[in-house]
Amino acid sequence: MVCKECGSYNAENLSVCKECGAKLHDDDTNANTAEQATANDEGRPARDFVKPPAWPKSAFAGAPEKPAGSSSASAPAPTGSFRPTIPPRTAASQSQTCPHCGKPVLSEAPFCAYCGQRLSGESPAAARPAVKPAPTPPPRPSYAATGFDDEDEDDYEEEDEDDYKPAKASKHPGKIARRAKEDLDEYDEDEEEYDEEYDDMPQKRGKGTTILFWGLIALLLALIVVFGLYIARKNFDGNVGKMFASIGTIFNKGNSDDLNAADPAATTDPNSQMYTATITETTDPETNEVMYQIDILAPTGSAIRVVTDATLKQDTIKVPANDRIVLSIPRGVFMPNAPVDTETLTLQPNIQAISEDGQTMQIAVPPITVTVPALSMTVTEPAGDTVNATFDNSPIAIIGQVNNYDGEIAVYVNGDQVYVDSTGMFTASYTPIQTAAALTMPTSSPEATLDPSATPDPAASASPDASTTPEATPEATEAPVVDETVTTETLPGSTETITIEARKNNCVTARKVITVEPYVMQTMSFTVDNDLKSLSSDTGSVTIIGTCTPGTVITGKSTSPDVTFGEATVTETGTFSMLVTIAKVGGFDVTLEGKLQGYYDGTANVIVERPPTVSSSAFKKAAADLSKNYEKIKTGVTTSGDFVVTGRITEIISTDPYTIFRVQISEGVDVIVYNRSAKSTINSSDLKEKKQIAGTLKGLYTDGATPVLWGWFIWNK
User: Fold this and answer.
1) What is the pLDDT at residue 514?
2) 154 or 237, which is more confident?
3) In the chain, is it the N or the C terminus that has fewer CB atoms within a 10 Å radius of its CB?
4) HSE on the CB side for 533, CA within 13 Å?
5) pLDDT, position 1
6) 637: exposed, middle or buried (C-beta count within 10 Å: 0-12, 13-18, 19+)?
7) Quick one: which of 332, 381, 651 has its CA closest to 507?
């Protein structure tokens, strides 16, 4: 921009002349003043304070006229102004032309802008304007209020110092044109920084350095290729694609940050599908045999081997070409060829690929799911799921039949194969092992007695004045129970099982498990069914009848040598009979005992009698006086014989099945009498009555000191 005072060229961004300090733009100050006046109420400038100054539309337009007498000193400085201003000059003369070149010149310019000659005729010395004192800049606002930092303050201080440096008058007008080049260096801070950035760029490399750089790059690439081929040949059978796929899995591990990245498993690279196979099930139309078409991807020339327990004519075949081969294999090759326990099987074909250098690779083959038939059988004996062992561990019979028998089915009992006929029938036996532990058990069960007293005496009932009194037989005491330890063979475990299986390869095994319960000692069933009348015979022959467990062996015992027994007969249903012979008159205790393996011994106590055949008077006449033989009987010297006793009835001990009463012979001397009279009865009305009894000595009462008389005849006294 050309200064209107001195005509020197100035940069467009300067507001005053660099040489004379004259104002270059009147509207700049006014615009800035107007802009600063728009500061907000808080004292800070508005955001539009950084707007660029309004540059003049015309490069040679003169400054606007100022009214006379106005000065910058009289006008108040704007609050936000930070640039110095030049006092207004007097009104400029009208536009004119240069007298030297005829070009238009500014009204107040002392020199022509085109030829550089002075417009007036004054001497250069007279035309040189006096040096003006530097005007005092208006006070600058606080930077805290305007929002500028310290760096902005430094920038403005430097700019102010440059703006207010005193301008010197030009001595040589011709130098004005030469200064234009120097004025081009006056740029703002941004332009200088832009130049410095380009000045800092490195110098262009030489040709030799570039050749060396690219040579090293080529050498590095060659080394990478050589080592890559070596690794691919050693670890990936020369397959470079497989090597890069492996490297990709190392760095990515299947986790990609790219949401749109392709799934590595879905790649269509043929190398990624190497050593894999697909299976398709088909049926041979001629044999109806199930076949599997196995499409295998493996390197050409490698050998495919099928690993199986089945017998194959050929178990290996080479891949002919195109890294692919399709095999047709029967389903039986992959079957277990053994009995199975479930109808649904999952088969995993085992196929391997052997490369030409001997390396074995496993082919990834999908599993196969098949359904196999199930066998069935019927076991008729034992019929249930449990069976009891016998006392002597006799064999347990096993009988059954296999359904739909085809000759390939085998039957096993506890792992031992048994014979099966052409119809599928099989028979076997199993001998259990005694598993009962040593037990303490009585050798006799509670006495199962057919006591004659359990049945009313018909003879006694026939008498109108007779009453039945329970009999307390001195010798008819309950046999003591003797504990005896019975030890059986003992093995670990509480039970045994019989496992019966029908097996066939590739079929579900038919199985039945039978539990064998260990033998447990049982109580024998043993009873006597005679009534009192059938146990009495004046001929001396009595038959004892009853029931027992089939197979029981029965024997009879008596303390008297006058009683003998015949052989007991036991039927298949368990009824028995035994003949008892009585040699002389009297009542005798008899014990029947039954024995059977696995059962407690059964016993029954009864009393058999043989009544006298003579009259009562004859019997009484032949009988001895009991009172005279009392001490001998009590001490056991006398154990048998017929006696007569006279005394008073003091107590009725029992009325069923025999009437038993106590007779006091004298003070402290008593006799126990069983009433076996066919004509006389004893009841409570006979208490304290004096009676005479004739009978046969039976022994001592349960107290071991009182004689017992089996009374045949009774008289009142």
Assistant:
1) 93
2) 237
3) C
4) 8
5) 72
6) exposed
7) 332
Q: Tell me which residue of 295, 554, 380 sits closest to 450, measured CA to CA.
A: 554
Phi, psi of 452 (to 5 degrees): -55, -25
Q: Answer with the residue of higher pLDDT: 236 or 42.
A: 236
- Rounded CA gap, 271 and 254, in Å? 18
pLDDT at 271: 56
- Closest to 403 measured CA to CA, from 425, 432, 427: 425
pTM: 0.41
Average pLDDT over residues 448-475: 37
Burial of 368 (C-beta count, 10 Å sphere; 0-12/13-18/19+): middle
**Cβ-based neighbours of 445, under 8 Å, separated by 6 or more:** 523, 524, 526, 600, 601, 602, 603
Which has the minimum average pLDDT: 94-103, 218-227, 340-349? Answer: 94-103
* Closest to 17 in 3D by CA, of 100, 106, 97: 106
Domains and CATH numbers, the chain: 1-201 (no CATH), 274-371 (2.60.40.10), 452-484+522-610 (2.60.40.10), 616-716 (2.40.50.140)
DSSP string, 99-119: TTT--EE-SS-SB-TTT--BS
Q: How far apart are CA 507 and CA 343, in angstroms?
A: 8
CA separation for the pair 680, 21 (Å, rounded): 181
Q: Nearest 5°: phi and psi at 216?
A: -65, -40
Q: Tell me the C-alpha distance between 2 and 180, whole Å.
A: 10
Average pLDDT of the chain to the nearest whole number: 74
Q: Are strands 624-625 and 642-654 parallel, antiparallel or unpaired?
A: parallel
Comparing 40 with 698, the larger pLDDT belongs to 698
Identify the three-state secondary structure at position 275.
Answer: coil
Three-state secondary-structure class, residue 271: helix
Check: CB of residue 413 under 8 Å from CB of residue 511. no
Asked if residue 675 lies in contact with residue 658, where contact means CB atoms within 8 angstroms, the answer is yes
Locus of tokens 């799921």: 385
